[in-house]
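Chain entry —
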Amino acid sequence: MINILSSGNSILNQFISELRDAEIQKDSLRFRSNLERLGGIFAYEISKKLVYETREVITPLGIASVPMLIEYPVLATILRAGLPFHTGFLNFFDKSENAFISAFRRHHKDGSFSISIEYASVTEIENKVVILCDTMLASGSSMVLAYKELISHGKPLHTHIVAAIANVEGIEYVRKNISKQEMTIWVGAVDDELTAQSYIVPGLGDAGDLAYGKKH
């Protein structure tokens, strides 16, 4: 149910280390590029779980039998931090249709905050495999709200929930609020600490700001 890709040695760990590195983070292009490359790695791993059929491909010299996807997954992401991560998936699943969800964090005077969905553009997802990605899985609230928004437009066959970096509390929140029969969780790395403002520690900071500049 939960796949942690950093548990083994691979180039993924190099990309995650660069995402975390405060000095390398100063280069926003590099930050976005690393997220995109991670998206490609996750796309490749998830592709192993999809359904294929053997088809014949005509080459200049003959005919080759090749396993090919029966149907591409729908790619969904949470704006705005998830966009470069989403691009990595789209580079691999280049025939996929897409969905975009805007989740807004509203801060209150007492220091607390609430999360709400502002906007959603969702393609047909009924009985389809969906990949829902966001760079960070902190408290898990945004991911669960995004998932609920998705299924208000149709019932997916299965949903792969993906985050580059996650927190243990966020993973548990997702597990408690989404049936395990409906989804599989994929994360790059898991950190233990979560601040009162729901920032992951050591994490990497605000992924949206690092990718696209500070918001006001």
User: Anything to note?
Assistant: The first strand starts at residue 2 and ends at 4.
